[in-house]
Automatic annotation (TrEMBL):
<dbReference type="GO" id="GO:0020037">
    <property type="term" value="F:heme binding"/>
</dbReference>
<keyword id="KW-0560">Oxidoreductase</keyword>
<feature type="region of interest" description="Disordered">
    <location>
        <begin position="44"/>
        <end position="65"/>
    </location>
</feature>
<keyword id="KW-0349">Heme</keyword>
<keyword id="KW-0408">Iron</keyword>
<dbReference type="GO" id="GO:0016705">
    <property type="term" value="F:oxidoreductase activity, acting on paired donors, with incorporation or reduction of molecular oxygen"/>
</dbReference>
<dbReference type="InterPro" id="IPR036396">
    <property type="entry name" value="Cyt_P450_sf"/>
</dbReference>
<dbReference type="GO" id="GO:0004497">
    <property type="term" value="F:monooxygenase activity"/>
</dbReference>
<keyword id="KW-0479">Metal-binding</keyword>
<keyword id="KW-0503">Monooxygenase</keyword>
<comment type="similarity">
    <text>Belongs to the cytochrome P450 family.</text>
</comment>
<dbReference type="InterPro" id="IPR001128">
    <property type="entry name" value="Cyt_P450"/>
</dbReference>
<dbReference type="GO" id="GO:0005506">
    <property type="term" value="F:iron ion binding"/>
</dbReference>
<dbReference type="InterPro" id="IPR002397">
    <property type="entry name" value="Cyt_P450_B"/>
</dbReference>
<protein>
    <submittedName>
        <fullName>Cytochrome P450</fullName>
        <ecNumber>1.14.19.8</ecNumber>
    </submittedName>
</protein>
<dbReference type="Pfam" id="PF00067">
    <property type="entry name" value="p450"/>
</dbReference>
Length: 378
């Protein structure tokens, strides 16, 4: 087991857990939560309003989480997404058509990696696609780990924007997720106020594109570094599902590769009771950071085959978490990645990153991690 005391990017004390078995054991543990009885004195993970300080613990915290899963679950279920697949295929074709007419080299991040997840989540939510540059800026502000003022302002702007759309859906409902949230508010305006619906919708908009952008960029880089695996994927589309799982295993929405040895980067949780582990005792109120990226690279997962292996099976990674907080949008992310990588190398068999990996610029102040640009040629 690997657990040690460390500090977060804010300098606050934390426990860092990085081995697969312990991470998977702790992810569903009800004693590790996102709330704290007094967030003002709790250790902080970052200065971001999202995954920075814990949320305040309230009598309805558990019920609110169940409501969220109940409201969102049907929109990310297998039946709904199978019906949605043809539209995702159309959107993938459109962004690849755009890529095809660009001069070379061009920025894959700007032409494909960002627009595709943004267009998909806009379609599902019912957000005007033309507004994607606006919420892109707010999302980047929200994810800032260093500047709390910028993060709070971005989060507030995103929630206000979704709130305005919800008011429109109250008057003119359509077949989209925002209309579903508006209907839930109408049924229980006190238990589910409009502000709560706006925060939930804003969270879906934020999470629904930011992390998938990082995964797409990761896949392009990995296949560029392993052209033999790229060629195999192009020849045999049946390899796509396994390749997507490997992309997810090696891609985390956290800047793990930029962390200093004395800092904890990962998924933050706060202990609401004492937790006895073989090598440590976590006290109530302590911050625990679960290092999913390292856990996914544990020998338990990869065995002797380290590095990127697009045919890896089984692949029991925890990129989407585990247990009651398992990412509800995981099926949508998988769908997007599968459709994209099914089309991409058939249309662009020689696509590769146009610069050395060390020339790519990371976004170290964004808890969603990722890179600023991904120049490619084909």
């Amino acid at each position: 087991m690997s657990i040690r005391r460390t500090v977060t990017p804010t300098g606050d004390p934390a426990w860092l857990v990085s081995d697969y078995r312990t991470v998977k054991k702790l992810l569903p543990d009800p004693r590790l939560v996102r709330t704290h009885p007094d967030p003002t004195v709790a250790p902080r993970y970052s200065e971001s309003v999202v995954f920075g300080p814990p949320a305040p613990e309230t009598p309805t915290s558990g019920a609110d989480h169940k409501r969220m899963r109940k409201l969102l679950g049907p929109w990310f279920g297998a039946r709904q997404l199978e019906e949605f697949r043809p539209r995702v295929e159309e959107l993938v074709t459109a962004v690849l058509d755009d890529l095809a007419v660009r001069d070379r080299p061009t920025d894959f991040h700007e032409v494909v990696s960002f627009p595709l997840p943004a267009l998909v989540i806009c379609e599902l939510l019912g957000v005007p696609p033309a507004d994607r540059e606006r919420f892109r800026g707010w999302s980047e502000d929200t994810a800032d780990m260093v500047d709390p003022g910028r993060s709070i302002a971005g989060y507030a702007a995103l929630a206000e924007y979704i709130g305005e759309l919800l008011v429109q859906r109250l008057e003119h409902p359509t077949d989209d997720l925002l209309s579903s949230l508006a209907a839930a508010h109408q049924e229980d305006p006190e238990g589910f106020p409009l502000a709560a619906a706006a925060q939930l919708g804003g969270g879906v908009l934020f999470a629904g594109h930011e992390t998938t952008v990082t995964a797409i960029d990761t896949g392009i880089l990995q296949f560029s570094l392993h052209p033999e695996q790229q060629q195999a994927l192009r020849i045999d589309p049946s390899l796509v599902p396994a390749a997507v799982e490997e992309i997810l295993r090696s891609s985390m929405p956290l800047p793990g590769n930029t962390a200093r040895d004395d800092e904890a980067f990962g998924l933050p949780r706060w202990a609401n009771a004492e937790i006895e582990l073989p090598d440590a005792t976590i006290a109530a109120g302590d911050l625990v950071v679960l290092q999913l990226l390292e856990a996914n690279d544990d020998p338990v997962v990869v065995g002797a085959q380290r590095g990127f292996l697009s045919t890896r099976q089984p692949n029991p990674h925890v990129a989407f978490g585990h247990g009651p907080y398992f990412c509800i949008g995981a099926p949508l992310a998988r769908l997007e990645l599968q459709v994209l990588f099914s089309q991409l190398y058939r249309r662009f068999p020689h696509l590769e990153v146009a610069v050395p990996p060390e020339a790519l610029r990371a976004r170290p102040n964004q808890f969603t991690g990722g890179i600023e640009a991904l120049p490619v040629t084909w």
